[in-house]
Each structure stands twice: as C-alpha cells, then as structure tokens.
Amino acid sequence: MDALRPLGIDPALLAAYLINFILLLFLLRLFLYKPVLTMLEERRRKIQESLAQADKVRQEAEIQRAEFQRELEEARRSSQEVANRIAQETEKMRASIIEAAQREAEMIKAQARQQIELERQQAASELQRQVAELAIEVARKVIGQTVTLDEQAQRQLIRQFLQEAGKFS
Amino acid sequence: MSRKLKFLLAAIGALALMMLGNMFLRFHLPPVTVRAEPLPGLTIGNVRVTNSLVTALLVDVILVVLAIAATRRMQLVPSGLQNFMEFLVETLYNLTHSIAGSRWTPRFFAIVATIFFYVLVSNWFGLLPGLAAVGFCESHAELATLHQPTIWDRISEHATARLAAPLPAKGGKESTSGTHTYWGCQPGEIIVPLFRSPSTDLSSNLALALVSVGMTQVFGVTALGARYFTKFFNIAGMLRAFRPDEGGQRRGCAGMLGTFMFGGIEFFVSILEAVTEVAKLLSFSFRLFGNIFAGEVMLLVLASLMPLVLTLPFIGLELFVGLIQAFIFYVLTLAFFTIATVSHENQSSHS
Question: What is the crossing angle of helices A11-28 and B51-71, to 10°?
Fold first, then answer.
C-alpha cells in the first residue's frame, strides 16, 4: 500500500470516502429519491384519475344534453298541441256564437212578422168595423129612418156582405 | 450601435482586461501535486485529513441541503427548486429504467444516482475560480517531512519547476533557486489549498470504483446465485470434453481434444473476465482523476500565463468535461450492474 500513497491512495482515507459515500447514499435516498419518486408516482396517479374523471364528466354531460334535447322536443310538441287545441276551440266557439246569433236574428224576424201579422189583422178588423158603420150610416141616410130592421140585424147583414166582398179582394 | 461596433468594443475590452491582468495579477503556478494535500493541524486518529476529504464533506452538505430544500414542502404542482430537482431525478430515473429495466431499477437507482450527483458536484466544485488560492501557507520543508519523496514527487516537482518558470524581473527579488513567492505567503512557503475537488483525489475515486465494482458482484450474486462466479472461472467447456456429445455418442480422440481446446479458450476468456473486473477499479478511478485533474491543472497553468479572459472558454470546456465524466461514471456503473444480472449462458446462447 505504501507504493500507492504518493498517488494519494491511503487506506484510512479510502475508508473515510467509502463511509462518506454510503452516508450520502442514505441521506439522498431519504431526502431526495424517495420523496421525489413518491411525488412523481402520486402525480401520475392524480393525472390518470383526473383524466378518467374528465372522461366521466364528459359522458355525463353528453347524456344530460341528450336528455335536455328530448325534454325540449317534448315541450315544443306539447305547446304545439295546446296551441292547436286552443285554435280548434276558438273555431268551435266562433261557430257556435254565429249560430246563436243567427238563431236569435231568426227569432226576432219571426216575432216581427207575427207582430206585423197581428197588427194587420187588427187593422183589417178595425177597417171592417169602420166600413160597416159607414155603410150603415150611408144606408141610414139613404133610406132615412125607415129602417125597420133592428140594429143588430143590420150589423149581421153588413158583416156578411163584407166577408163575401173580402173573399174577392 | 451597430453589431460590428459592439463586437469591436468587446474585443478591445477583452484585450484591455488581458493586459491589465498580465500587469497586476500575475502569479506563480503553485506546486501541483497528484496527492491531495493534508491540511495542517487537522488529524482524526492517525489520519491527516486532506483538503479533498473536507471538500467531499462540503459536497455532501451541498447535495443534502439542496435535497432537503427541494423536498421540504413538496407540492403536487411543482415550482422552482422542487421542479428542477424533480426534473433531474426523473430524467435520471427514466434513463436508468431504459437501461436496467423494471425489475432492477429500484435497486440500482439510488446507488448510480448518488454516484452521478456526487461526481458531478465534485467536478464542478473544483472549477470555482480562485479555489486554489484559498488556503494555508506552509513551508515546503514541513510538507516534505510528511512523507518520503518518491518518484511521483520528483515528477510532480519537475513539472512544477518547468511550468512555473521565474517571472521576468519583477522587483528583482526573484531567484533561480526554485523557491517562489506566492501571494500572501512568505518566501519558501507554498499555499496548501483549503479545498480540492474529491475527483482529483484518487482515494475518493477508488472508493467510488470499489462501490461500483463491489456492488456489481453483489447484484450478480443476487440475480444468479453462485452461478455468477462461473463467469470468472469457467471450466465447464473443458469438462464437456469428457461427456458424450449432443448425439449421445462417445467422443472420439480428436473430438475430445477439439472440445477440450475450445473449453480451454472459454476458460482463458473467463480468466480475462476476472482480470477485467480488477482493471475496472483502475480504469474507473484513473479516468475520472485524469480528466478532472488535468482540466484543473490546465486552468491553473493558463491562469498563470494570462490571469484574465483566457481561462473563460476553458472553464466552459471543463464544465462540460465534468458533466460528461459524471455521466460516464454513472452509465458505466449502471451498465456493469445490468450485465452482471444477466445470465452468462443465456447471453451466449442468444448471440
């Protein structure tokens, strides 16, 4: 070993360096490699998890979107239905209102016609009566007071005459 | 200001710096020793603590402090130092994994990574400018008593004398006796630097090489059991000569001889493997030592020739060399570990 000493190789120093290296090995393992490698592993795991999570979330979103789409479609359809129904009902109501109005108009017209008929009859009988009286008056004047027939009989006679005359008018 | 003008100004500035440095900052090249210098007055037991051992401890402290600072408050979303250290460890881990595979990486990683970080910080620590100038003054004679001069010292001193030729007449107190004045030291004294990169101390490198080669054997035995050692003493090939051949026939005389010869070659190769294993110790330690030590000496020599500017590109070069050497130590150790865990027979049957 003495021959090596000038080169700087000394058994005691060699042992010192060996111990030094082993010490450094354990310290670095404790403070550097272990924590860093653990952290790298943990980070790898986290990233993997996050990616999986993101995938899941995307799938869920896809499903939700489909659901929304479906609901929207349904809402649109049902609103269309409601609108259609309302339109139908409105149409029906319009028809019924018009029908009622027509019926009422019809009724009013009939009533008016009846009224007119009634008034015409009244006017006719009034006319008859006046004509009869006029005729009696005329006859009285023509024949003076010599009418033997009583008044009742005279009226009967005239009415008969007028009725026959009315048949021709 | 145009590019050309800027360039010109930079060149003039650099030249001015060089001249100023040469006028005021010249220094003698301190003696360059292959051996790490013991620090005066620092002994543990019988051992004189060397400056490189002190530096090794400092490197430990730097690494451990960095590690603790980076991992003290670990966050899932990293930033700053944590991010950087994670990047280093992860890159190294992935590289280790690509070489050693899933099964062995957890067992190899701590050792090879520690080698890498330790060697890297050691290499770079020695490049801190002015490191060689911080130290104790000690008389040459006192240092000389520490050991009997050997051929290595003579070589080292010779080289020093050649490199540190006397400065051209400055004050005239320069003599040709070979004793120079170093900054802040009395004549006849030299600076013993307080710090010296452990990579320029063969003890440190050999310790690392011992760890590398020793753990190679440990992992080899772990993976293959006692069978691992047949790699170094393989007489199976020669014994095959005395057994029937593949067809179940007894071998003839010529066949037996031929098989025995081939077995002999295999045996010889296995002996070479054993020698290689020992040679690895040398190649590991001397490669690292040579590269880093040479780099530092070169920087010192260049600085003594021209204190400013000239060393700058070479510091960059040495940073690169330091990184490469750390990486080589790491990769070779890892490769030897991996090879040791692979069965010898499988390997040859595959090829």
Answer: 0
Burial of B131 (0-12, 13-18, 19+ CB in 10 A): buried
pLDDT digits 0-9 by tens, B46-99: 777 888 999 999 999 999 999 999 988 888 888 888 999 999 999 999 999 999
ipTM of the complex: 0.82
Which of A23, A31, A42 is the best substitution to test chain B (most B C-beta atoms within 10 A)?
A31
Q: Which residues contact B315 (CB under 8 A, 6 or more apart)?
A: B127, B129, B299
Contact B76 A13 (CB under 8 A): no
- Is the predicted pLDDT of residue A56 greater than 50, yes or no? yes
Sign of the CA dihedral with A43 first, then B77, A24, and B320 last: positive
Report H helices in B225-310: 236-239, 253-305
Nearest chain A alpha carbon to B76:
A43
Q: What is the DSSP letter of B171?
A: T
Whether B57 sits inside 8 A of A20 (CB atoms) is: yes
Chain B residues with CB under 8 Å of A2 CB are none
pLDDT single digits (tens) B199-216: 999 999 999 999 999 999
What mean pLDDT do residues A42-65 have?
95
Measured between CA atoms, how close is B68 to chain A, in angstroms? 6
| pTM for the predicted model, two decimal places | 0.73
Rounded to 5°, the CA angle B288-B290-B291 comes to 70
Q: How far is CA A23 from CA A136, B46, B64, B69, in A?
A: 164, 22, 11, 18
